Amino acid sequence: MTEIKKEDFEKRLVELRQEEKEEIMLAYKFAELGHKGQLRDDGECYFEHPKRAALILIDELNIIDLDLLASDMIAAELLHDIKEESSILTWEEIELFFCPVVKLIVETLTKDKSLPERERDEKYIEKLKNADRVIKKVKLADRLDNLRTLKGCSKIKQKHIIQETREHYLEIAKETSGYLFEKMKKIIENSGFEK
Length: 195
Fold this sequence. Notes:
The chain is mainly alpha-helical. The chain has one domain: Hypothetical protein af1432 (Orthogonal Bundle), CATH 1.10.3210. The longest helix is centred in the last third of the chain and has 22 residues.
């Protein structure tokens, strides 16, 4: 995958107010620092993932034109893995530097690592199913990018992501965004992994 340059990312924010751009670019800096040195399964710099997920919100879902919480959603998308993958920010700092909405989105999208894995995943899915549409869109953009980059994962992980998406995320997408539902469904159908 091609690296998304900071300048190219910032150009997508041209329609936002200055304080909204500043909130997003602060999230960009924290995410870049928090994921520094981290790699995805395919060896790609981890930070490219939250950037791409944010661009799904901007370019494909047009949230800047359609959603009053667009800047908070983009900031939260950039930070969606920050608590699971780093210790750069506390919950209090996320709320202080951003706002309660960004904190709520990131909190909802962060799995509770103190729980056993099976229980953690079940509680996470339940929490997500009961979440607001805004939070669901942020998660689904993240999931769509994960599906688009499956080839960099082991076959076992690919199968797990496809199965989990089929069992849980397609249902959430169907009620949240027809666009995301269709994109995810097509990737699953073309994946070669049967039910």
